[in-house]
Amino acid sequence: MVKAAIRALDTCYPPDARLRYAAAVLTDKGNIFSASNYGSDTASLLLHGEQMALAHAAMHGEPSIVAIAIVGKGNAQLSITNVAVDEKNSHAHPCGICRQLIWENAVRSGRDITVIMAKPNGSYITKSINDLMPDPWPERRRT
Ligand SMILES: [Zn+2]
Hints:
The protein is α+β, with helices and mostly antiparallel strands. The protein has four helices and six strands; from the N terminus they run αββαββαββα. The protein has helices spanning 2-8, 49-59, 96-109, 129-132, and strands at 19-27, 32-36, 65-77, 82-85, 114-118, 124-128. The longest helix has 14 residues, at 96-109. It starts with a helix and ends in an 11-residue tail after the last helix. The model has no long low-confidence stretch (mean pLDDT 90).
């Protein structure tokens, strides 16, 4: 999964994107679907790699996932902070929006989801989505 996510970094759009994020999901049917971020000059219309990977699996009829691997590369200036992801920095973490989407996928399937946060060199750490979303909204049944 990590290798699939790393390979997907090369498909980020636009090709000259300064901050690249890619992801690969493992579905409950055992298949892997990867995707990368799809950018926009507006920045607010950016589709995250995690969102694209979830949609990629769903459009192939496999919306329930058991794990997701995420990798990032590059840097960008956001309104409140710099974001830099490379081999010297932290493992790629999902943003709040993507955590919400992954958590909702877990609620729908009734199982926890493993989140694999990787670096471009292939090293990674894992956490469960329940650990990354200790106080989810809306308050719902936990997996
Ligand atoms: Zn995100």
